[in-house]
Structures
1.
Amino acid sequence: MRNMKLTLKIWRQSGPNAKGEMKTYPVNDVSEDMSFLEMLDVLNDDLVRKGEEPIAFDHDCREGICGSCSLFINGEAHGPGRMITTCQLHMRKFKDGDTIHVEPWRSGAFPVIKDLAVDRSAFDRIQAAGGFVSVNTSGNLVDGNAVPIPKDDADTAFDAATCIGCGACVATCVNSSAMLFVAAKVSQFALLPQGKPEAKRRVLAMVEQMDKEGFGNCSNTGACEVECPKGISLEHIARMNREYLTASATKD
Amino acid sequence: MARSALLGSSLAKKYWMALTGLFLCTFLIAHLAGNLQLLDMSPEGQLKFNAYAKFMTTFPLVKLVSYVLYASILFHAFDGFLLAVQNRKARPVKYAHEKAGANSTWYGRQMALLGTLVLVFLIIHMKTFWYEMHWGELGLDVDGNKDLYTLVATVFTQWWYVALYVMSMLVLAYHLLHGFQSAFQSLGLNHPRYTPVIKNVGVFFAVIVPVFFALIPVWMFINA
């Protein structure tokens, strides 16, 4: 198989407060079997050999489950292709001679740390505000069948729980809204009996934190659902809208 | 939470956007139903329309609803402005290369722009007819009612005015195409069985209502 020659235009920014710019890098010998991150590894290897600063980007598991890898590739979160993270994006999606634009997630709530790596701790703070159940789960296991849960509810809760918190929803949203992420985290508990006792407090606290972090508002464009690597549905956003409305109306 | 329940959170703003938006949709139906009388351009049609205009500006219940309507228009615009300002602030550094068309419609992303254009149209529209009806110097018809019909008929003899109306209805159509179904989602009304129905009704509404509105000036221009 013939290897590809590509031109990469990559955002370089030396630190959080430094001025960044798009820089052009030619890469030769790219195999179509490489993942996008492996292609960047090859480029970084080359940069290090030449004594230049390698490009910083986030990655960890490289099998699509950790949510670390980000990258806005050719104008789309995680690049072209659906239901994948950047580590699952293969170079066979591109053609010899292509120019590829690579930018970090752009959101005021996700400040750039360096180059393509952004600080997504805003998501952690939203989660910490209410995305949990206050029960001691050590040493007092309850039989699974003791709490009956309709299969559909369990499945929908699980679908919501597949959110890996990568931030593609924020990156792709015209308003940098975090609604899909927060809705997934609210839904995974709201649907289950274990989550019900704290449901009101949870949704109010998580939305309040979401607003504090400076994310934009939801315009229901549906772009997040399309770009989400786990296919989290807009139905979860509607559920959060319902949860929040009833919680605001009935809170003490 | 000390913030106001009305506009405090991002979600509360969206609820109000949805509620006022859907109310304005019901107004569009009523307004269209009344204005379709203008298609009857006979002398009797003129008198009927003027009598209808008098009823709409004097009957107490209609007047009361019209105040709710003015408030809704202003609030929808103000709330939309607040949302748009926050949305712009949320992404201080823009993307150099974006392919937004791959995952969403342009009109869904440009609701603020479309809404602003609708508002500009509304200001022109209300100055031309609403202001003149209330405070202008309108002549009287043979029944002694203000002759709004003649004003409308005269205005729509100007081709550029007709063109402005048709263009504005196109803008409104796109605003409704996203806004109608979006309002239900904002209120949390999403259901596998009903959402497809809501979306289809939304498309039907967004096409039919502006087309009939646009038909009125075109019809009056042709038959002048």
2.
Amino acid sequence: MIVPKNILVFVELGENAIKPFAFEAIYAARILADALGGSVVALCLGIEKHLADSLVHWGADSVKILVNPLFETITLEKALLAITPLVKDQKPYAVFFSATTYGKELAASLSAKLNVGLLTDCVSIDLGKQGEMLVRRPVYASKAISHVTLQGSGPHILSLRQNVFRGPGPDISRTGKVELIDFKIPNDRLFLKIREVVRESGGQIDVTEARVVVSGGLGMQQPENFKFLEDLAQVLHGAVGASRPVVDNGWRNYSNQIGQTGRTVQPDLYIACGISGSVQHLAGMSAAKCIIAINKDPNAPIFSVADYGIIGDALEILPLLTEEFRKVLGSSV
Amino acid sequence: MRILVCVKQVIDTAARIELKDQKLDGTALARVLNPYDEFAIEEALRIRELKHDTEIVLISLGPECFRDSLRAGLAMGADRAVHLMDPLFNKVDSLTTAYLLSLAATLLGFDIIFCGRQAVDDDMALVGPALAVYLKIPCVTVVTKLDFLQDWDVAVATRQIEGGSEAIESPIPALFTCQKGLNQPRLPSLKGIMAAKKKEIETFNADKLGFSLKENSSSKETLIHTGLSLPDRRGKGKIIGGSPNEVATQLVKILREEEKVV
């Protein structure tokens, strides 16, 4: 008997909407399932049924919505209680998560629960000659790539780096099954309580989710000058990043720090302004598709990874660049 | 109260990674205490400053050289250290590492466990949450602020999530993985370094933990590591020259028309 190789995708939600990177995980699962002749099952905890259609449009064959009033807020415990029996019961070939804070801790906890291997932050998934999964993931903060072959019938647990598995977008003609399932949560096993959720001001996108990241280093000279980066980021619908010394000086929040001990980003466009480019910083951004470096020092290491370099003062060039983008992208922004 | 802090030794973050036969040639590279583990140790020290009857025990699983990192943590101010070392531990996977740590934690007893958010070598972020699962205690990862209520029975951990942060309440005992921003780790003082030389590093072997290789996890058979590669050498390295105005116009044109990223 041939066992179908199904992929289960854990769908992460934010404020009653599906997070964009959840669609990336669905898309990656679709590609793999097509190659393996399996199907894609999306798992959601307590969403409105109509939202599930978008998961089908991105490639899910079926959507399971577990329903319980407690899913109004999701904690690691609740998600783990929900997903563990489902994986044990359905025996999928692979379980995909997004490599977010929640996705990573849930994937790691599930891995321990089931005593099966975990791969975090995967950036490519291919199939080998015998149909085995070949996975690549960055290690040493992206200074090297680890190649892993997955053997056996699974379940293999993977979290996928955001912004990598993008896909062509939804196909609204796709159809699939959406199931609502009442799920009981044993109350005596819940210890964690969410007291407060704070969104970053101005509804800015997170640096790991942004397609464009405009980053500043000490060459920005003073914290007030980050206004120039924010203006450019706004025009390009991007996010503002920072180098470690900037964060250590207290100019910017550490959640925006790009590099080995900060966040690792993989945007389409990374603009490094006044950043010399330490080994640790390069590790956090060198997987970006296109890198622009603006720096006064022609010997700055950042130029070694840049596609385009501008030797000059970022403070002088940034406003001109913002103005130029505003012009060509239309006055609406 | 007893706080356990799990630490790991990693290759210095400033090191350039070079490969030989698709493997890391790490012999000549400097090794340091995992940077995120410093936040974990510092947080334990801060708790002890407020609650004096607190004992801080470092735990690490690794080869002989890991003792240097345990010493570094003791020099920061931890009270004692436990080194999990046995020939049987040499090739265990991350899940088994977490399992062995859980055996040691149970032997030692604990109220709080701190880990780093991840080790900056394999970047798997597995051991912390897996350890919490094996110990059946609540876990909050990527913590940037930690407060205690009700006579140290309840913790409120603020942690980073995509696009913001959230505050999560958890009873103690619990496990927290520590992120930059939680605190500013202190540098060991000369006095601390001298004192660390006299502090105890106890070794726990497989016998002491009651561990046999049969308990090893299945991931060694399913995850076959076939090697490392370096990221594609990148950077077209084109320098755009001209007046600031010309540079801006030219760059926007390139990004729109050639690179098509905007």
